[in-house]
């Protein structure tokens, strides 16, 4: 499973002759699927002669899998505010990784600690951590990308990968309502005058009451 035979070189075809005492060399090609786990895969090699007799040899293919690490966040932070946000990292690959950490950077966003340590991460596993993110007042609302680097150890070698997460910056709209005047009499239509103020820094749109 995960290993598929795909063919041979031209000097080792499906049907060829070989004289007594002769030998030939060729290459067998196999496709290793993305979901193949690390380990040894047995392969049976069979060579048949004219009379149907032949030999069967057993060998193994050594597969070295690798982790595939994906960072993501669903953070929503208002302009000018600081908030704790959950950062997730998932290993969708076929190999465990260790000493895993992620470091974040952005010129207009601050972090309580720009580096998060996740430790080990097995294939198919997801880990989460909290990161305090502070957004500048002048950043536009909407999706904002934060660059990241992922450090980990794979088969004894230190690996550094570039990545990113996206956060959603919300408009700093803060509406305050205060009552100015009221006029209510029994049996008649009542009236309440109010004052509506936006004490935030962004423009409030499509206001309804």
Essential attributes:
mainly beta, five-stranded mixed sheet
Structure overview:
The structure is a single chain. By secondary structure, the chain is mainly beta. It contains no helices and 15 strands. The strands form five sheets. Strands 6-13-12-8-10 form a five-stranded mixed β-sheet, with no helix packed on it. The protein has a four-stranded antiparallel β-sheet with strand order 5-7-11-9, with no helix packed on it. Strands 1-2 form a two-stranded antiparallel sheet.
Order of helices and strands: EEEEEEEEEEEEEEE
Can you tell me the residue ranges where pLDDT is under 50 for at least 5 consecutive residues?
A: none
Name the quaternary structure. single chain
**Radius of gyration, CA atoms, in whole angstroms:** 32 Å
Helix content: under 10%
Shape: elongated
What is the CA–CA distance across the termini?
A: 62 Å
Mean pLDDT: 79
Give the number of DSSP strands. 15
Strand content: over 45%
Largest sheet geometry: 5 strands, mixed
Strand order across the largest sheet: 6-13-12-8-10
> How many distinct helices?
0
Return the structural class: mainly beta
Quick summary:
With 209 residues, the chain is mainly β. It has strands at residues 3-8, 28-32, 39-48, 54-63, 69-73, 76-78, 82-91, 97-105, 109-111, 115-121, 126-135, 142-154, 157-170, 175-183, 191-198. The strands form five sheets. It has a five-stranded mixed sheet with strand order 6-13-12-8-10, with no helix packed on it. A four-stranded antiparallel sheet has the order 5-7-11-9, with no helix packed on it. The protein has a two-stranded antiparallel sheet with strand order 1-2.
């Amino acid at each position: 499973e995960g290993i598929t035979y795909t063919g041979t070189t031209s000097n080792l075809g499906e049907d060829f002759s070989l004289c007594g005492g002769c030998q030939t060399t060729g290459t067998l090609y196999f496709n290793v699927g993305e979901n193949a786990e690390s380990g040894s895969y047995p392969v049976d090699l069979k060579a048949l002669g004219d009379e149907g007799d032949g030999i069967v040899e057993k060998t193994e293919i050594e597969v070295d899998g690798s982790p595939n690490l994906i960072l993501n966040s669903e953070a929503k932070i208002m302009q000018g505010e600081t908030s704790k946000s959950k950062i997730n990292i998932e290993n969708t690959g076929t190999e465990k990784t260790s000493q895993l950490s992620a470091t974040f950077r952005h010129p207009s966003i601050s972090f309580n600690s720009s580096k998060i340590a996740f430790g080990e991460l097995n294939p198919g596993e997801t880990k989460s951590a909290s990161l305090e993110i502070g957004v500048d007042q002048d950043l536009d609302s909407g999706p904002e990308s934060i660059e990241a680097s992922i450090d980990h150890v794979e088969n004894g070698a230190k690996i550094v990968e570039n990545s990113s997460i996206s956060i959603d910056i919300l408009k700093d709209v803060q509406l305050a309502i205060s009552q100015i005047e009221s006029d209510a009499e029994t049996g008649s239509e009542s009236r309440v005058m109010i004052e509506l103020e936006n004490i935030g820094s962004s423009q409030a749109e499509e206001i309804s009451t």
